Amino acid sequence: MSYFFKVYLNSLAEDRKTNVSDKMKQLTPDDQRLNLLFIYAGGDDLFISGGWNEIVEFAFDIYQSFRTYTGNNEYITLSGGISIDDIKFPLYQAAKTSGEAEDAAKGNGRDSLGLFGQVFKWNEWLGIETINSLDIDVKKYLDSEAKPNLFGIFPFVERLEQQDIGVNYSRNFVRNLLITAQIQEQALEKFKENKKSVEALGTRYYLHLPKIAYTLARLPQYVLKDNDFRTSLKNPYNAPYFRAIATWIELLNRR
Description:
Elements: H1 2-14, H2 16-19, E1 36-42, E2 45-50, H3 52-69, E3 80-81, H4 91-106, E4 112-115, E5 118-121, H5 122-126, H6 136-141, H7 154-163, H8 167-193, H9 198-202, H10 209-217, H11 221-224, H12 227-234, H13 242-253
Parallel strand pairs: 3-4
Antiparallel strand pairs: 1-2, 4-5
């Protein structure tokens, strides 16, 4: 394990094209070198600084490489946290906030990533294993629902990047998606405070439908012709991911 963190990760950062598999999910072309600064890497721990988008990309490189390195052993897990801060933010404080994100990830049953103030399993971020990453109670409640072709967070970000819908459309999409996420979060908090039943809590997976229909109606027609994107965004399995999707797209628009 020490070899992976001390040696392999440096090679991965320096030469992605040689070390990144074609099957790995990525937004940045593998022939583009990431500008990263390794503060510490050893044992089973590391601390890296760099541009937020490159850190996120490298985090997914690390996880997918780690799964291959460990033979996809389900008992060997990896958790991480990413803090996105201003360029003048003290490094020692960034270490603290990223550590807090990592702690939140470890509190999510491990093998998770804390990013954008959200915590999900790596497979939910990447959309690698549809549905299998979800909580048993959630899968039981939504069992009658058709499984979406696009699942998780990365697939939606990647699809919108490919569609190149333009800044104005993208901003409207982000704003409406964040409003939808807020509606869900407020309703869930209210249900918990009132100690509603499991069935009532389950309605949070459907609260998004009216707002999502409104959001989709304001996208370009060529995007709406993408049936996988349209139907998957409305699918209740993807309801928990709206804030993360919107935040990621919003930050990409600032580049």
